[in-house]
Every structure is written in structure tokens, then in C-alpha cells.
Amino acid sequence: MTTSRPEEDIAKHLRLLDPDYVDIKQDLVTHDVKRYINSILDSEDAFDRWNDEIKANIKNKLLENAGGMFVLF
Questions:
Q1: Which of 8, 26, 44, 50 could cross-link to 68 by cystine, CB 3.0-4.6 Å?
Q2: The Cα angle at residue 26 between residues 47 and 38, in degrees rounded to 5
Q3: What tens digit of pLDDT does each residue of 55-67 get?
Q4: What are the b/e assignments for 50-64, b being 16+ CB within 10 Å?
Q5: Where along the chain do its domains lie?
């Protein structure tokens, strides 16, 4: 499995490597990133001290800058 930004020059080379190429749309990835952020902000005790407005600002800023990219460590 290989993932990348949706740049045409990269995509062209990846399609040559795998006939089962799947294009993952940014809005679908953004939805998953949003769900992940929500789960972390709601489940981690370290974020309990922050009110909903601060959490919303954090989530919005992360989503703005993610650009449909997600890295899981």
C-alpha cells in the first residue's frame, strides 16, 4: 500500500506500479481526520481542562492545515 498527495506526476507513477489504484478523495480523509481529532479531544484527560470553544479552535486549525493528509504513528 502506498499513499501520496494527489499530484499528477506522483499519481502517474503509482498507477504504473499497481493496477488496483484507488483514489482516496480529500473530503473522505478529512472526515476521518475530524473523527480522530474528536475522539482524542473527548477521550484524553489532558484536554478536560479546555472548554468547547478552545477544542473547536484546535480542531479547526488542525483540519485547515491537514489538507486531507493523515499520518498515523
A1: 26
A2: 15
A3: 999 999 988 887 7
A4: eeeeeeeeebeeeee
A5: 23-73
